[in-house]
C-alpha cells in the first residue's frame, strides 16, 4: 500500500516535471545564452549547458545601451497604458449597461460583443493598413493606440459582465434607497466591489498590447516607434547577424515578470475566457 | 392619518399583471404586513413604494406628497432587503453611515448618529467588523440600524427573516417588533409566512394575483376571511371547505370537535358523522384526517384536537363531530366571496 | 423610550435627474463601445470583403471591382494552396495534441502536490510570453548550427557519422520540410497548451464533488470516471478551449513569420503569413485581403460552435 502510494507520487512528480521541462526549457536556454561569451557560444564542441568561459554581463550592457531596447520598452509601456485607459473607459460602462440596464436583450448583445473578440487581426490588418495610411497615422504608435481596443474592449466587456453579474442587485438598490442616484449607486457600490475584475482587465489589456504582432508589424516601419514584440525580433537582428545573447536577454526580461503576473490573475482570466460557464 | 397612500397602483410586465389596481393607506406608526403566496405581487408593490420599480399606472403618496415619479433617494424611505444588502466592502460603521453620507451630513454628526443607532440595537461592539464576520441575527440588526439612522418616513422590509434558521427567526421577530414599537416607525413588511404576518402585523393585507383580497387586523382576516382564498391561505392547516349545492361551508379544524367536548356548552351546534382515517400526533395537538359521512369530497376534512382534551379517537372509527354555528362561515360557490349565514339542510 | 429626534436628518428635496434615468443611462453607457466597434471592426470587416473583390494595391488609389479575379488568381498559385492546406494541417494536428495533453495536465494540476505553485508559473510561462519573443527563443533552440538539441543527440550517439540520424553533425530542423513542419507544430503546442490546460482545469474544478463521489460509490474506477463522467461534463468547456485554440492558431502568422518565413521554399506557409507577404510586403492588397478572407468560413464555424455551446450551458 505504502509502496503503491510512493510509486504513484513518483509518477505524478515525474509527469509534472516533464511538462514543466517542455514549457520552461526554451526559457532556460534563453537565460543560459544571455550570460555567455561569444567564444563559448559559437563553438559547437562545447557543452552548451555549461559556462566553459566565465559568464558575462556584457550582453545586457549591449542590450540596454547600444540597442533601441529601452525605446521599445518605453513604446510598449506607453501604448499599453493608453490602451488600458481607453479600454476601461469604454468597457466598464458598456459591461454595466449590458448586465443591469439593458433588460433581456443585454445578454444577447453581450454574446454579440464577445463574438467580435473572435474576429482576428489577420482578417482586418489589410483594410486597417490602408485606413491608417489614409488618416496619416502610418509609423506612429497612435495607430496602435487606436486599433488595439478593438481587441481588448470586446473581451474586457465580456469579462466585466461576469463580475457585475456576480454582485447582488440588492446592494445597488439599497444604495439608491439610502440616498444615491442610479449613477452614484454604480460608482459607490459596484465599482469598489469589482476591483479585482478591473485589475484583471488591466492585466489582460496590457499584456495584449505587449503580445500583439501583426498590427505592430504592419503599421510601424521605423525602429524608433517599434514596440517590444516586433522591435526585438526585427531590429535586434542586424542584417543577417543575430545577436543571440542580447536577443535572448530581451525576451526573457519581458517573459518572466509577465508570467508571474499572469499566474496571479489566472482565475479571473479563465473565468472570462470560459464565458462565466465556470465560476472563477 | 396616513403616511403612505396608494391609489389604483398597477404594474404590468408584458402580459403579466404583477400588481393590478391596489388602493391602500398605511397609518402612522403601524406595522402593516403584505402577505401572500410567491408571485402575488407583494414584493413588486413594496418595490414600487420604494421607487425601485416604476408603476404602469396609479399614484403613490408619501407624507401627502406624490412621489410616483421621484427616484428612491428623494422619497425619504428606508428598506431592509431579504439579503440585508450590507455593503460587503464596508465596515458595519460605514454601512450605517452610508445613508448619512449620501445626505451630506458632517462627519461628527454622522459619528454621533451611528453610535446612537448602534447603541439602540446593541451592536456597538461590531462597528469595526465586516458584514461577512456577522451572524444572521447581527446582520439584521445592522440592516435595521442603517434603516433607522436617517429617520425615514416609512421603513420597508422585504422578507427580512427568511434567511434565518427557525430558532433565530423567533427571536429576530421579537426584536423587530419591539424595535418598531419603540421607535414608532411606520413599517411595511412583506412576507409569505402567515405565522410571521399574524405575529407581527397591526394589520395584514392579503394579496393574490396582483390584487388585494382583504385588509384587516390578524383576527379579522383569520376569523372573518373575506373569501375562500384568504380563509385557506391563513391557518395551518387551512380552513375546511365543504361544497354544498349552492354554497360553500367553511369551518376551521380547531372548531371541528367531538360532540362530547362541545356538548357542555349550550350553544347551537351543527353535527356530522366523521369517519377518521388517519391521526397525526403533533405534541400539543392531534391532527385528524377523515371524511364527512354522506358528503362526497376530494379533500379530507380535518380536525385539530388538543391533547389536553380527554377524548380517545382512533383511526378507522366513526364519531359524531360538531361545530358551533357561530364558527361556521359561508362562501358563494362561484365567486368564493363571503356570504350571509344560512340554514343548513342535512 | 429612545428619542426619535436624535435621528432626524434634514430632508433634501430631490427630483428625477439624468443620473436616475436607467434607460437613458444604459444607452449612454453603451454608446461609446457601440460606436467604437462599428467604426473600427464593422467598417474594416466590410472593407476587407470589398478589397477582396477589387484590384486595390498599396500604391494605387484607384479602386475597381474585378469580381472573383483575386480569388481566381490566388487559387491558381501553388503557394496559396499549400498555405491553405498547411493552415488546416498545423491547426488540426496541434489542437489534437493540445487537447490530449491539456486534459492530462488539467488532471495533474487538480491534484495537490508540493511545488504546485512553481509548476503552475512554469507551465503558463509560454502563454504569458509575447508570442514573437517565445518564437525567437525557439529559433535559437532550433538553430541550424548551434542547436543544443543537436549537441545532446550527438552526446548520446544518435547523431553523427554511423548513427541513426545520420552522417551530418546537424539536424537542420528548419531546413527540411518534414522537420520544419514538425517544429512549427511543436512551437504551437508549446505556446497554446497552457491556455487550453487552464481552461480545462477550471472546468474540472467546477464539476460537483458529489457527482464524483457518487461515481466512486457506484463502483466506477479512474478510467471509467474520466471517460464517462468527467469528459462528457467537460465537453462544453472543451469546446471553449478548442474554440480559442483554433481561432488564435488559425489566424496566427507570428510563428511562421519568425521561425521559418514560410520556408523551406514555401512549404510551411500559412494563410495569415501568406496574406501578409502578398498584401503588405508585395503590395497587392486585394489579393492579400482575398487570402485572409479564406479564414472566414472557419471563423464562422467557430462562431456557430460557441453559440451552440453557450446554449447548451444554459440548459444544464
Pick out its properties:
heterotrimer, A: 280 residues, mainly alpha, MetI-like fold, 2 domains, two-stranded antiparallel sheet, 14 helices, 76% helix, C: 316 residues, 13 helices
User: What class, by secondary structure content of chain C?
Assistant: mainly alpha
Question: In this structure, how is the largest beta sheet of chain C organized?
Answer: none
The top level CATH class name of the domain at 79-279 in chain C: Mainly Alpha
* CATH architecture term of the domain at 79-279 in chain C: Orthogonal Bundle
Could you say what the CATH architecture of the largest domain in chain B is?
3-Layer(aba) Sandwich
The description of the largest β-sheet of chain B is:
6 strands, mixed
Unreliable spans of chain C are: none
Taking Cα atoms only, what radius of gyration of chain C do you get, to the nearest Å?
27 Å
**CATH class placement of the largest domain in chain B:** Alpha Beta
What is the beta-strand fraction of chain C? under 5%
Segments of chain B where pLDDT lies below 50 for 5+ residues? none
Total beta-strand segments of chain B:
19
Strand order of the largest sheet of chain B: 6-7-8-3-9-10
Mean pLDDT of chain B: 89
Instruction: Give average pLDDT of chain C, whole number.
Output: 82
CATH topology of the largest domain in chain B: Rossmann fold
Q: Give the quaternary arrangement of the chains.
A: heterotrimer
Q: What fold name goes in the CATH topology slot of the domain at 79-279 in chain C?
A: MetI-like fold
Strand content of chain B: 25-35%
For the termini of chain B, the CA-CA separation is 49 Å
Amino acid at each position: 500500500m505504502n509502496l503503491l502510494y510512493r510509486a504513484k507520487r513518483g509518477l505524478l512528480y515525474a509527469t509534472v516535471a516533464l511538462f514543466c521541462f517542455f514549457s520552461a526549457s526554451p526559457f532556460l536556454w534563453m537565460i543560459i545564452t544571455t550570460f555567455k561569451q561569444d567564444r563559448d557560444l559559437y563553438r559547437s564542441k562545447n557543452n552548451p549547458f555549461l559556462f566553459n568561459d566565465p559568464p558575462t554581463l556584457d550582453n545586457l550592457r549591449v542590450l540596454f545601451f547600444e540597442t533601441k531596447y529601452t525605446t521599445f520598452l518605453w513604446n510598449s509601456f506607453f501604448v499599453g497604458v493608453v490602451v488600458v485607459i481607453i479600454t476601461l473607459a469604454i468597457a466598464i460602462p458598456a459591461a454595466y449597461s449590458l448586465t443591469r440596464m439593458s433588460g433581456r436583450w443585454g445578454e444577447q448583445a453581450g454574446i454579440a460583443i464577445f463574438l467580435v473578440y473572435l474576429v482576428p487581426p489577420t482578417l482586418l490588418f489589410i483594410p486597417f493598413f490602408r485606413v491608417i495610411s489614409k488618416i496619416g497615422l502610418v509609423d506612429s504608435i497612435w495607430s496602435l493606440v487606436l486599433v488595439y481596443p478593438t481587441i481588448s474592449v470586446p473581451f474586457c466587456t465580456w469579462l466585466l459582465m461576469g463580475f457585475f453579474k456576480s454582485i447582488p442587485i440588492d446592494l445597488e438598490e439599497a444604495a439608491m434607497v439610502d440616498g444615491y442616484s442610479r449613477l452614484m449607486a454604480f460608482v459607490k457600490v459596484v465599482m469598489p466591489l469589482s476591483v479585482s475584475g478591473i485589475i484583471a482587465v488591466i492585466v489582460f489589456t496590457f499584456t495584449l498590447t505587449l503580445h500583439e504582432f501583426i498590427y505592430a508589424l504592419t503599421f510601424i516601419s521605423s525602429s524608433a516607434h517599434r514596440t517590444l514584440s516586433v522591435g526585438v525580433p526585427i531590429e535586434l537582428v542586424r542584417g543577417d547577424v543575430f545577436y543571440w545573447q542580447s536577443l535572448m536577454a530581451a525576451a526573457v526580461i519581458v517573459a518572466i515578470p509577465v508570467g508571474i503576473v499572469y499566474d496571479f490573475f489566472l482565475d479571473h482570466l479563465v473565468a472570462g475566457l470560459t464565458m462565466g460557464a465556470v465560476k472563477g | 392619518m396616513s403616511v403612505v397612500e396608494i391609489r389604483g397602483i398597477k404594474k404590468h410586465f408584458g402580459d403579466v399583471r404583477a400588481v393590478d389596481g391596489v388602493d391602500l393607506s398605511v397609518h402612522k406608526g403601524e406595522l402593516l404586513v403584505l402577505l401572500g403566496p410567491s408571485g402575488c405581487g407583494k414584493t413588486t408593490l413594496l418595490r414600487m413604494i420604494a421607487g425601485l420599480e416604476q408603476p404602469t399606472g396609479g399614484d403613490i403618496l408619501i407624507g401627502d406628497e406624490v412621489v410616483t415619479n421621484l427616484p428612491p433617494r428623494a422619497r425619504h424611505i428606508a428598506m431592509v432587503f431579504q439579503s440585508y444588502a450590507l455593503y460587503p466592502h464596508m465596515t458595519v460603521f460605514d454601512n450605517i453611515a452610508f445613508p448619512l453620507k449620501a445626505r451630506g451630513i458632517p462627519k461628527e454628526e454622522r459619528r454621533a448618529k451611528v453610535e446612537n443607532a448602534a447603541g439602540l440595537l446593541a451592536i456597538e461592539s461590531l462597528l469595526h467588523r465586516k458584514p461577512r464576520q456577522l451572524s444572521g441575527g447581527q446582520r439584521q440588526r445592522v440592516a435595521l440600524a442603517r434603516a433607522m439612522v436617517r429617520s425615514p418616513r416609512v421603513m420597508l422590509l422585504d422578507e427580512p427573516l427568511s434567511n434565518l434558521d427557525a430558532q433565530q427567526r423567533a427571536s429576530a421577530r421579537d426584536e423587530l417588533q419591539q424595535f418598531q414599537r419603540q421607535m414608532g416607525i411606520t413599517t411595511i413588511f412583506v412576507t409569505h409566512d402567515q405565522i410571521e404576518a399574524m405575529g407581527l402585523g397591526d394589520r395584514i393585507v392579503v394579496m393574490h394575483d396582483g390584487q388585494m383580497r382583504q385588509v384587516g387586523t390578524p383576527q379579522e382576516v383569520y376569523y372573518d376571511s373575506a373569501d375562500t382564498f384568504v380563509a385557506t391561505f391563513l391557518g395551518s392547516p387551512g380552513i375546511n371547505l365543504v361544497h354544498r349545492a349552492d354554497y360553500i361551508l367553511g369551518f376551521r379544524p380547531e372548531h371541528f370537535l367531538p360532540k362530547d367536548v362541545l356538548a357542555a356548552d349550550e350553544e347551537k351546534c351543527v353535527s356530522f358523522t366523521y369517519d377518521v382515517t388517519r391521526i397525526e400526533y403533533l405534541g400539543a395537538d392531534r391532527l385528524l384526517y377523515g371524511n364527512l359521512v354522506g358528503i362526497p369530497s376530494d379533500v379530507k376534512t380535518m380536525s385539530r384536537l388538543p391533547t389536553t382534551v380527554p377524548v380517545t379517537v382512533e383511526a378507522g372509527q366513526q364519531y359524531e363531530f360538531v361545530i358551533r354555528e357561530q364558527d361556521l362561515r359561508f362562501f358563494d360557490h362561484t365567486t368564493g366571496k363571503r356570504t350571509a349565514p344560512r340554514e343548513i339542510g342535512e | 423610550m429612545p428619542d426619535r429626534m436624535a435621528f432626524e436628518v434634514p430632508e433634501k428635496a430631490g427630483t428625477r435627474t439624468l443620473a436616475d434615468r436607467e434607460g437613458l443611462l444604459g444607452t449612454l453607457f453603451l454608446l461609446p463601445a457601440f460606436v467604437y466597434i462599428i467604426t473600427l471592426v464593422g467598417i474594416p470587416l466590410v472593407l476587407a470583403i470589398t478589397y477582396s473583390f477589387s484590384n486595390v494595391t498599396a500604391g494605387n488609389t484607384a479602386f475597381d471591382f474585378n469580381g472573383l479575379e483575386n480569388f481566381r488568381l490566388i487559387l491558381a498559385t501553388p503557394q496559396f494552396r499549400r498555405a491553405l492546406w498547411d493552415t488546416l494541417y498545423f491547426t488540426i494536428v496541434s489542437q489534437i495534441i493540445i487537447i490530449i495533453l491539456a486534459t492530462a495536465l488539467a488532471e495533474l494540476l487538480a491534484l495537490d502536490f508540493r511545488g504546485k505553485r512553481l509548476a503552475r508559473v512554469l507551465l503558463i510561462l509560454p502563454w504569458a510570453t509575447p508570442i514573437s519573443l517565445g518564437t525567437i527563443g525557439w529559433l535559437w533552440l532550433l538553430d541550424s548550427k548551434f542547436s543544443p538539441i543537436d549537441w545532446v543527440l550527438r552526446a548520446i550517439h544518435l547523431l553523427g557519422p554511423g548513427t541513426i540520424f545520420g552522417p551530418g553533425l546537424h539536424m537542420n530542423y528548419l531546413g527540411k520540410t518534414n522537420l520544419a513542419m514538425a517544429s512549427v507544430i511543436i512551437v504551437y503546442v508549446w505556446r497554446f497548451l497552457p491556455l487550453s490546460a487552464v481552461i480545462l482545469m477550471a472546468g474540472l474544478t467546477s464539476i460537483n464533488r458529489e457527482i464524483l463521489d457518487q461515481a466512486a460509490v457506484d463502483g466506477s474506477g479512474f478510467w471509467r470516471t474520466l471517460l464517462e463522467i468527467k469528459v462528457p461534463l467537460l465537453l462544453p468547456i472543451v469546446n471553449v478551449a478548442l474554440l480559442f485554440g483554433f481561432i488564435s492558431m488559425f489566424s496566427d502568422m507570428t510563428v511562421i513569420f519568425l521561425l521559418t518565413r514560410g520556408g523551406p521554399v514555401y512549404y510551411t506557409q500559412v494563410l495569415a503569413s501568406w496574406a501578409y507577404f502578398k498584401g503588405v510586403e508585395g503590395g497587392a492588397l486585394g489579393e492579400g485581403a482575398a487570402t485572409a478572407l479564406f479564414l472566414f468560413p472557419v471563423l464562422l464555424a467557430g462562431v456557430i460552435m460557441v453559440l451552440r455551446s453557450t446554449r447548451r450551458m444554459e440548459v444544464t
